[in-house]
Amino acid sequence: LRLLCYGDSITVGTWSGGDPAPYSDALQETLAQEYGTHVQTIMYAFPAWRAISSAEGIYTHNLGLANILNFRVMSLAPIDMLVLLLGTNDIKFNADYLPVHQALATHHFVAYDELVRHSIAMEVPPSSFQATKPLQANNAALLKERQMTMVDDRITFFEWPFPYENFHNSELWSDGFHPTDIGYDIIGQSLAPVIWGVLEGTQRVFCYGDAWTSGKTGGTDALHPYAPELENLLRGDSSTGRNAVVGHLGFGERGALELAESSRGGASRYGLANQLAGAPEMDVVILWAGAYDLRSGDNGYQRVFRAIRAMNDIALYRGAKRTIIIGLPPPESEDRPLLREAVNDRLETYAAAKSETTYFRFPFNQYTPSARVWGPGGH
């Protein structure tokens, strides 16, 4: 599970005691010790950063949220959850709550567009400025009300875990604004059950494979993975209370054998074994590989079958409750069906023998023209 902590100096962990003490450290530790969940936190945070200016540069600034998320996706390390804390400096310098709320909402919507599956909206923390200036206190209160209206099955509101007590609480530094190391630990420890609550009530699906999983499309660098649409279908009507997150990791120009080799423990940080190690237990792992072997004309169907079978065994060994193997897609032309048929027949037989845990599926069975498949490469 990968969390992006994005925000200002409070996300950095700034305080007077020396080295920064980011809340993400305590968050990681608490999730591991109390809930048995290992997460990777990635932090992009900047002192004096304001929500409004951040939203204005969200696409154009090198450190804008959209650019950061796009970079993480292109580097094959997509973000699962955003933890957003901005607005403290806007409120401090008397910004009106409404444009601050609009800026924060923009960040959450961009995260959704960039395939982040859930985000945490953190309350602007109380401070000495709000305690002494009615305008700031009023804007902070109205902003909190607005933030709470954004809550849905993709956004969770996080209420600040400790009050401002006129410089007398150990959680706040003497500037009345930044937490102490104790305060940062409390933030991380309080955030952990919120994140765990999101995970605990969620059906988790992970799609792993080649370019068909990454969503490679014809003629452009654009990716259109099937995972987000699958997630939408699994969620269905949000009024039912169902929740699902569908992650994906796909590699272009990689055959099934190469994917299987990289999937073994320790072989590659992006291998299937490492992707599942330490993550919350997956309800379903979907495997789709072999298309590159088909494209290259490799007729070693036994090698391809064994490679896909090995990945399926790894997924089950790493705790997946169910696996789905998607069969090889149609070849680029009708004169190369042998590998596809031979591999799919063996995969179907293998899945039938493991019917309690493994299913074999393919969404369309025949070679079809460009309505479903882009010609070059068969994507």
TrEMBL record:
PANTHER family: THIOESTERASE 1/PROTEASE 1/LYSOPHOSPHOLIPASE L1 (PTHR30383). It comes from Grammatophora oceanica. CDD domains: SGNH_hydrolase (cd00229). This is SGNH hydrolase-type esterase domain-containing protein. Residues 5-186 form the SGNH hydrolase-type esterase domain. Signal peptide: none annotated. It comes from the Eukaryota.
